[in-house]
Amino acid sequence: MQSSASSRPTAGEFEAARGAVPPQSLALSQVTEWNAGTLRRIEDALAAEEPLEIRIGAEPLTITMRTPGHDTELAAGFLLSEGLIEAADDVVAIRSAPQASGRNNLVEVELREGVFEPAELRRNFVSSSSCGICGRASIEAVRRRNLRAPSNDLVIDPELLCQLPDRLRAEQRVFGRTGGLHAAAIFDAEGNLLVLREDIGRHNAVDKVVGWALLEGLVPLSNCVLLVSGRGGFEIVQKALAAGVPVLASVSAPSSLAVQLARELNLTLVGFLRGRRFVIYSGASRCIPSPR
User: Fold this and answer.
1) How far is Cα 116 from Cα 233, in angstroms, rounded to an integer?
2) DSSP class of 283
3) Average pLDDT, whole number, for the chain?
4) Which structural domains are found in the chain, ordered by start?
5) Which residues contact 290 (CB under 8 A, 6 or more apart)?
6) Which candidate, 217, 227, 218, places its Cα nearest to that of 191?
7) Taking the model in full, what pTM does it have?
8) Is 131 assigned a catalytic role?
9) DSSP string spanning 134-147?
10) pLDDT tens digits for range 231-253
11) Choosing from 131, 134, 224, 287, which is the catalytic residue?
12) CB atoms within 10 A of CB 275
């Protein structure tokens, strides 16, 4: 697998990456609606949530609760975000493995020999859809990783940045049916949407878009913006840095630890991106063009 950032997918491939709603992402249920004193039975669409097991060879690595769909991307993004791989070339093969039950809740990954020691697999990586810092025993363990400061080449026009949440919302196909999912999207410097993924866990949504970029050979994402529909927590900052993203924006607030880590590594961290207003917590130079 190649990891050269110069190998860019075509416009058609970008459109396919955005894609239709994966059928397994939705579950239909009969519910009772109360509306101004009137009761009625209706069919409601729910965001699906099922466990996904990720294995390295035959060794179980982690189980995460996720919305089914784009599972190989989720696994690839998780491995990069957690520092178990550094490039697409570290992955020899990655596949969704159907189970006897007929469900596809298992991804098997074959890594290049010598990528990491087998003892790494014995760490506890069990997580959930709101796991926080997935699998790490402490914040210090994350900081000890070789996370590098992102490129300073990107400068994003503030007016363009303000347009991105509407573009994200317009493409949230599953959210439009269920109202119950987080979204993450990668935009290029011109504001073009490259990929969007939804999941019941905000960190899973980020892993899916990062995993897509990794498998497409686009990491590091040094000329891109990562936008998330929820808050910009510490774990989201960690994942953005692992993918080489210079600008991370969210429609809600970041946490104090997210701000601290972003400032340490000069990641541009934007919060409360709503309408024509946003707050820059770190790396303001990428959002404020130099005077001519």
Assistant:
1) 27
2) -
3) 83
4) 1-292 (3.40.140.10)
5) none
6) 227
7) 0.83
8) yes
9) TT-S-HHHHHTS-P
10) 889 999 999 999 999 999 999 99
11) 131
12) 9
